[in-house]
């Protein structure tokens, strides 16, 4: 095990609420332990698999369109749960996370640990900004993702730069 932790913010900042993944990655820059890899992806499965190659833990941040929609509602899912929910929710991308996870499993390229933090979204129109419900829920989503990253690093309560007990 390498101890490599990767956070992938899936989405497009130019498409309104679809920019929630990239917004979380940007907000995490000073909040996660050193060595955490923060990256953004358009969600294309082959690129996603390349981004998490060699990782021990992967945290994916994704925008979801659910029916009926509840913009700003947060979901934390395992890889299996995310794949199973793909029928009831839709990624904002051509191929959803479910297809990506199925491909990874077929190719034996799922990371040992993967968690998905997803937010239900409203407006994904080109040129739109984050909607009010998504902007309001963004701090809680950032907190959840930061906690998952610290847990993956084995640092439950200490964000990057925090002073803690010295040995």
From TrEMBL:
GO terms for molecular function: aspartic-type endopeptidase activity; enzyme activator activity. InterPro entries: Pept_HybD-like_dom_sf, Peptidase_A31. CDD domains: H2MP. This is Hydrogenase maturation protease. Belongs to the peptidase A31 family. The lineage of its organism: Bacteria, Bacillati, Actinomycetota, Actinomycetes, Kitasatosporales. Keywords: Aspartyl protease, Hydrolase, Protease. NCBIfam families: hydrog_prot (TIGR00072). One of its GO terms (biological process) is protein processing.
């Amino acid at each position: 095990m390498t101890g490599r932790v990767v956070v992938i913010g899936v989405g497009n900042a130019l498409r309104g609420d679809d920019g929630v993944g990239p917004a979380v990655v940007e907000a995490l820059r000073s909040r996660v332990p050193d060595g955490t890899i923060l990256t953004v992806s358009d969600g294309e499965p082959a690129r996603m698999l390349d981004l998490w190659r060699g990782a021990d833990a992967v945290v994916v941040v994704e925008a979801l369109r659910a029916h009926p929609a509840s913009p700003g509602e947060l979901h934390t899912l395992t890889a299996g749960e995310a794949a199973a929910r793909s029928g009831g929710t839709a990624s904002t991308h051509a191929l959803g996370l479910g297809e990506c996870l199925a491909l990874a499993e077929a190719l034996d390229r799922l990371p040992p640990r993967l968690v998905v933090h997803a937010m239900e979204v409203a407006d994904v129109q080109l040129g739109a900004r984050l909607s009010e419900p998504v902007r309001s829920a963004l701090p809680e989503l950032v907190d959840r993702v930061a906690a998952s990253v610290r847990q993956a690093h084995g640092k439950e309560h200490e964000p990057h730069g925090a002073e803690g007990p010295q040995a």
